[in-house]
Every structure is written in C-alpha cells, then in structure tokens.
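Fold it.
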Amino acid sequence: MKKKYSIIPIVAIVLAVLTGLFISLFTTPVLSYITENKSPRTEIPHSDGSITYEYKDYFYTAKKVGKFMQFAYKLNPSQENLEMVSDIYSPFTYINGIYKGNTPPADFLKSMVKYQKLSYEKGYVEGESTYVVPSNSDIKQLVKLSDGIRYAQALYLDGQIEESEKLIEKLIKEIKEDSSWMRDRSYAGYLTLRDYFYLVYSTTENVTVKKWVLDTEAEIEKQANKSSVLSEYIAKHGYLFSNPDYESYVTNNWPEAQVGGYINNVPDNNVAVDVEGTWFVYENNFDKNKEIINGTNIKAQEWSYSNFGYEGLDEIQDNRLYLVPNPGEEGKIKLFSDCEVYAYNSSGFDGTCQVVDNKVYTVINRNEIVVLNEKGEITDSLYKTDDGEIKAILVDGNQMWFVCGNKICRLSLNSKEAEEIYTDIKFDEFLCFLRPISNHEVQWLELFRTDKSQYECERACYFEANELYYLSKEYIPDSQPQELIYPEAHWWFEEDSHFKDVQF
C-alpha cells in the first residue's frame, strides 16, 4: 500500500514539470528564442572594411520549428504567438528565400496566407502585442495598413491575384475615406503600398496585372498632388513610384528605399560627409545612442518621427539644435542648444552642424563658427565674419573647410587662422561637402536648374588647392529614372561616359 501511495507525489512532480514547460514554452518569451532564425550566415565583406551577414537559408526556422510554433499558437492563440508565427511565415521570408534559391517547406505558402490573414484581421492589440504603439500617433493606422499589405502580398505569392488586388483596393478606399489620414505626413499610408506594387510589377508577366498596377499608382499620384510635401517631391523627381526591376526590388536597391523611409525629401544622391560612421553631417553620433539634429529638419520630416513614437514634437522650434535618441531608446526629443543654428536646407542636407570627438562644431547667427560642449554651451569661437553668410562646414583632422559667401575657406583649428581657397562658387547652388580627401583637396555637391526644366540637376565638384586644379561633372537628375554614378570618393576618375549631359 505504501508503494501505491508513493506514486502520487511522483505523478504530481511530473505534472508540475510538464506544466512548467508548457508555461515556459507557450506563455513566455522562451518562444522568442526558439523562433529566432538560427540559420548559418554568410559573411559579405565590403570595400570600406565592414562586414554584413546574410542567411544561407531563409526557411531554416520554418523547417526547424514551424510546425511546433503552429502547435503553440493552436494551444495558446495569444497575440504574441500570432506575431511570432506570422513572422516565421512572412512574405519577406518567402521573397528573399526564393530569390536566394532556398526551398520552402511544402506548407509554407498556405501557412503564410493563413497567418498573415489572422494578423490583419486581429490587428494591433494594446497591452498584448510584443511592441508598443503610441496612442497619440497615426502609426496605429499604418500598422493596420502594413498588416493588410503583407496579407495582400501573401495572396499574390500564393497565386490568388484577384483576391490580392481586391484587398489592396479596399485598403486604398479606407485611406481615402478616413479624414484622419488627410494630413501631409499621412500620405505615408499611400506610399507604404510601394512594397506591394513593386513586388507585383517586377514579378508578373500578366499585361493586365501590370496595367492595373500602373493605373492604381497614377490614381494615387493624383491624390498625392494635394499634399504640399508630395507635390514638391513629384515636381522634383518626375514620379512618385519608380517600379524597379525584380533584382533591384529584392535587394532593396530602389531609390525610395535607400533612405529608409517612405518619402525622400532629400536629394537622392545623399553623399554628404561620412564622419563618425554616418552619412549626414547633421546626424553624426553624439553619444552612441543620440543624434543632434536641427529643429527645421525635424519639422520637415515630422511624419517620420511621429511614426517612431517620438515625444516633444510640439515643442520643436526652427533653427535650434535638438538631442534625438535613436529609435528604440528613450523617445523624448530634448533641446540641446538654444543658439540659432540656421538650417539652409530643410530637407536634411544642413551642413552647419558637425560632431567630432564630443565637440559640436556649428554656425550661429549665420556668420560665426563656434564650438559647443556636451551641455550645448559655447566654449570657443573659431571664426567670425561680416563678409557673407557661412553655409556649410566640414571638420577633417585639425582643419575645417567652410563656405562663406562665394568662397570656400580652410581654417586651422589650432591657430584659428582662415584662408580663402576657392572663390568662384554660387552660394545658393552649394549643397554640401563630400568626403574629406586631404588637407589640400576638397569636394562638394551642387544643385542647380537649367532654363529647360524645373528639376534640380547635380554637379559634383573637386578642387586641389596646391595645384589650383578644379574639376566638375554634371549629370541627369533623378527626375529621369536611370542608373547614376554617385559622386563618392575618387568619382573624378570615373569615365566621362558615366556622367551624362543634362538633357530634358
């Protein structure tokens, strides 16, 4: 009898262990670890010495734990489990996996449609989702729209083209009818559709489907012309949708994707100074997790900051410097310095602020170069002039290049002595300095317009101070879609055939 009763605690222990495992696997973040893509990765070296990694098999996770994750969701249909399983069976995974020649599990397409539909229909659930959407932003609508687009992509990839088109038309109708979308930044909703249109246009051989894409884009473009932001974009570029080929689409090499946003208000050839590991002069890392950005530029792209849930946007003033945390960090934009730092280009190319070695070099009152400390306080004045405005600066080692009036000058940071280097630029056409080359070579980018068109054209310029050697090359603006040679380091060695004459 004693042996019989001794079984009871053993059974209880086993049940407790199983219950613990169940809770751990199906109701805690343990599943997050299990469902992470553990596929072996390929190292891809780049010319700048950096290395990126790419999965060898995009379907690795689906093959290893896909069935298990589906079972987990069936047992516990929570928002967290749904997000995990829909992430495993996502259009992104399928598109990239097929492009790389990976073989998907037999049930992948069917599961992709099923879980993308569930995600779309259930939508974002506050307090249950694995991410947080600020209640005072439009991003909730964008999340719903993005879920719908992924579902439409899944339908298309599964061959349900007609159903896919109907869903897209439904989403477009919802955008048109919802008055809360009708603000400039809300047109990001329309442009989120790019990912769907470009997939379909670059993969279908059906002429009718291609025409549907183009007709739908044309209708959206008419709506977009009601937006001051997008009408300016269309006027500058000549198009709203670029419709890249399949190779460009899959590799994310389409023009609008290069800046990581839906709307590109900056010139497409964004080759500003590469300092501290970033491209933009005004966005250099200040303390690894924060950037210093001019309030004018923040306002110009307010939709983007709103979508990322930033706080403090209502307090932003033009021509003041703000400390902006990286996405995912503390979401409060804070005033860094109350000094007036004029932004000559609200689209982003504002070269009047640069951060080097915990020093902030900037221009105040349009005519004085100063140094700010980490508290935003002026600690030194490097140069002041009454001979025109200072538009751009570039710090390189112990010297600085800057534009003043129609001159490019070189300033020694040690002696604070400045000298004129080149005296034949047009202040209004100067956009930004390019990468520093040496203490006597400088390059920059200009934007100008011809009498034949309203579109801005681009001119890359190089000057060698010791030899007084000047070189410039002009080429067609991005309003004429085609492959361009961007003016990066040593662009002047490229063959002239790579630089086309400006034609309209």
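Residues 2-27 form the longest helix (26 residues).
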